[in-house]
């Protein structure tokens, strides 16, 4: 099993598969192919979006390729705001050429002339690096007019900055933000592949997705499918933090079990693991045999480890504070629901929550899952519901600390 | 010729609009530049931006209030944003927070009376493996310790020592 790790802001401790990528090999190959064949390869590889939702990348690109419009856009979602996720930052710092190569391949495949990297405001310090790499690629004829000498292929990429709003990572909110609006998610359909940036067909992919796309075109769909499970092909980059000996960025094949990850990162005593960020799954020890894959426990790459002495109610509280703060406030279940859940947690903390009210809070969580407009509100009750499910004994009948002190 | 502060701000914004464009998609980049230079986006600035982009000032206000890196209240020259999310929380960010408050003499959400520092919370800033982490303007600091806070703040203060005039010039 391949497991490699890197750490420290810009120094990689061990190589990733991306290290073996031959520069521009994927782009060169794709320009020798018809756009349709590139789409075919992407579909065959079974690559699914690495940003969390796991939509098949080939299918997404095909929809945009089929849309009839002169103007199309390729957007790289570098808004990485999910708590516990930082692998995109490392990819942008260390493997940016591969990411932009992937974007360029996407542009060729769907027939786009414009690309945008939407970089979160918190990563402003990476901007000059991004601009420098884009400039060099223009000089090397890898961006701009007639890329690699192909008279029928123009594509350029610009950087747009976010301004500190987690919800802007949601693809329709991201488009709103690019258009100079409040980052409030739109109702779908229409999907961005038909009506995206400025009303034009747009593919939005995670940073990591583009990097894999470049590798896939070079090495082939077969190579990619050799890794992972039947439904979750390939390798995946993980961000590991929390109570473990070796936090950092790791590469594992999808389908890896939680146990295996914990062993590798040095967390034998873990009591629980949060997979998929604040909105993901909180798994107790009894569930450590589960697989990290789209068909079991899906993730955008965040793994947060809780040691044996952690108070799981405090953890859930931290997540809910996050959501209450980051909800865009557009729809009621999410805006009010997260606040109510947070209040509920505070009651639990003080030891003042009846079992009846706890059940009502869980019902509220279920309602939020169903009735919220975007992924934020649909998933934000997860940590709360998981904590109630797996760690009820820690929640019920607590003694208020201030009383005993 | 005497130029008032408002004249300067207006000319700055017009120049920004010339450079960044007057379409709606230029709004955020313009606001980000104004925020960076003036440490705030005043009512007057919002009005001028709205005029340049030919939109209603309320539209500008709506955007400014949505994004946590934009603010119509004056901020300090250095905005310190300490991550409060779970991984940093488990690495005792509270002790760093306490020391920041002690050394600056302000609470979170406040700005020092001399207008130099603003102290804020941030949600996860993507440095979870190296917490506690914080941003000071665009610079990131990782593995921050309570003892290390003083030296980091001194580093900021030295900037005022050397360039105090030109740096402060835009505001006062
Ligand atoms: C609240 C919210 C935040 C999101 N944040 C991000 C993000 O920071 N980065 C990202 O790539 N996708 C994020 N997504 C998922 C995007 O909406 C979208 O599915 C993704 O960018 C598609 O790219 P992919 O198919 O390559 O994963 C977020 C979704 C939601 C609901
Ligand atoms: S679910 Fe939350 S973040 Fe999404 S649109 Fe509704 S209020 Fe906004
Ligand atoms: S939790 Fe603090 S940087 Fe991610």
Walk me through this protein's architecture:
The complex is a heterodimer of chains A (405) and B (172). By secondary structure, chain A is an alpha/beta fold. Chain A folds into 3 domains: 209 residues, NADH-ubiquinone oxidoreductase 51kDa subunit (Rossmann fold, 3-Layer(aba) Sandwich); 73 residues, Ubiquitin-like (UB roll) (Roll), CATH 3.10.20.600; 87 residues, de novo design (two linked rop proteins) (Up-down Bundle). Chain B folds into 2 domains: 62 residues; 90 residues, Glutaredoxin. By secondary structure, chain B is an alpha+beta fold. Chains A and B meet through strand 6 and helix 11 of A and helix 2, helix 4 and helix 5 of B. The complex binds flavin mononucleotide (FMN), iron/sulfur cluster and FE2/S2 (inorganic) cluster. Flavin mononucleotide binds next to strand 5 and helix 14 of chain A.
Summary keywords:
heterodimer; A: 405 residues; alpha/beta; Rossmann fold; Ubiquitin-like (UB roll); de novo design (two linked rop proteins); 3 domains; six-stranded mixed beta sheet; four-stranded parallel beta sheet; B: 172 residues; Glutaredoxin; four-stranded mixed beta sheet; binds flavin mononucleotide; binds FE2/S2 (inorganic) cluster
SSE blueprint:
The complex is a heterodimer of chains A (405) and B (172).
Chain A: E1 4-6, H1 25-32, H2 35-45, H3 57-66, E2 73-78, H4 87-94, H5 96-110, E3 114-119, H6 127-139, E4 156-161, H7 171-178, E5 202-206, H8 207-219, H9 221-225, E6 235-242, E7 248-253, H10 258-265, E8 272-275, E9 281-284, E10 302-306, H11 312-326, H12 332-350, H13 355-371, H14 375-379, H15 382-390, H16 392-395, H17 401-404
Helix pairs in contact in A: 1-5, 1-8, 2-3, 2-5, 5-8, 11-12, 12-13
Chain B: H1 5-20, H2 27-38, H3 43-53, H4 57-66, E1 78-83, H5 86-90, H6 93-104, E2 117-122, E3 134-136, E4 139-141, H7 149-168
The complex binds flavin mononucleotide, iron/sulfur cluster (SF4) and FE2/S2 (inorganic) cluster.
């Amino acid at each position: 099993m391949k497991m490699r790790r890197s750490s420290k802001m810009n120094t990689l401790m061990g190589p990733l598969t991306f290290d073996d990528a031959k520069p521009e090999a994927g782009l060169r190959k794709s320009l020798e192919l018809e756009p349709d064949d590139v789409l075919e390869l992407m579909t065959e590889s079974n690559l699914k979006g690495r940003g969390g939702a796991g939509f098949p990348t080939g299918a997404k690109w095909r929809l945009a390729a089929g849309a009839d419009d002169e103007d199309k856009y390729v957007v790289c979602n570098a808004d990485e705001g999910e708590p516990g996720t930082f692998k995109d930052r490392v990819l942008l710092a260390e493997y940016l050429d591969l990411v932009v190569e992937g974007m360029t391949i996407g542009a060729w495949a769907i027939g786009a002339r414009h690309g945008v990297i939407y970089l979160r405001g918190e990563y402003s310090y990476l901007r000059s690096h991004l601009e420098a790499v884009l400039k060099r690629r223009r000089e090397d004829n890898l961006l701009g007019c007639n890329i690699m000498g192909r008279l029928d292929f123009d594509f350029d990429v610009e950087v747009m900055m976010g301004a500190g709003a987690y919800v802007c990572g949601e693809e329709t909110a991201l488009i709103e933000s690019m258009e100079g609006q409040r980052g409030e998610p739109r109702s779908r359909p229409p999907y961005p592949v038909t009506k995206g940036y400025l009303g034009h067909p747009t593919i939005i992919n995670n940073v990591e997705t583009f990097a894999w796309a470049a590798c896939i075109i070079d090495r082939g769909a077969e190579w990619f499918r050799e890794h992972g499970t039947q439904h979750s092909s390939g390798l995946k980059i993980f961000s590991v933090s929390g109570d473990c000996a070796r936090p950092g960025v790791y590469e594992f094949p999808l389908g890896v079990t939680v146990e295996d990850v914990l062993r590798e990162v040095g967390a034998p005593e873990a009591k629980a693991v949060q997979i998929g960020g604040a909105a993901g799954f909180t798994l107790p020890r009894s569930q450590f045999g589960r697989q990290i894959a789209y068909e079991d426990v899906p993730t955008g790459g965040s793994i947060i480890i809780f040691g044996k002495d952690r108070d799981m109610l405090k953890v859930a509280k931290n997540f809910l504070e996050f959501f209450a703060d980051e909800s865009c406030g557009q729809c009621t279940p999410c805006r009010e629901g997260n606040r109510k859940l947070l209040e509920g947690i505070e009651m639990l903390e003080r030891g003042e929550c009846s079992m009846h009210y706890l059940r009502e809070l869980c019902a509220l969580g279920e309602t939020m899952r169903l009735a919220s407009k975007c992924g934020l509100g649909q998933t934000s009750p997860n940590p709360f519901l998981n904590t109630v499910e797996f760690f009820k004994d820690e929640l019920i009948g607590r003694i208020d600390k201030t009383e005993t002190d | 010729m005497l130029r008032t502060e408002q004249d300067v701000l207006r000319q700055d914004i017009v120049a920004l609009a010339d450079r960044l464009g007057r379409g709606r998609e230029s709004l955020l980049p313009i606001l980000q530049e104004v925020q960076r230079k003036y440490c705030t986006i005043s009512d007057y600035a919002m009005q001028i931006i709205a005029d340049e982009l030919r939109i209603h000032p309320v539209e500008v206000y709506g955007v400014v209030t949505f994004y946590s890196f934009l603010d119509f209240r004056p901020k300090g020259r250095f905005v310190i944003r300490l991550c409060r999310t779970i991984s940093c929380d488990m690495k005792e960010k509270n002790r760093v927070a306490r020391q920041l408050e002690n050394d600056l003499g302000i609470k979170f959400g406040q700005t020092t009376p001399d207008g130099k520092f603003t102290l804020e919370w941030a949600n996860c800033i993507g440095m979870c493996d190296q917490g506690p982490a914080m941003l000071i303007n665009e610079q990131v600091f990782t593995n921050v310790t309570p003892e290390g806070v003083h030296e980091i703040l001194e580093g900021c203060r030295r900037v005022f020592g050397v360039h105090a005039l030109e740096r402060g010039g835009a505001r006062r």
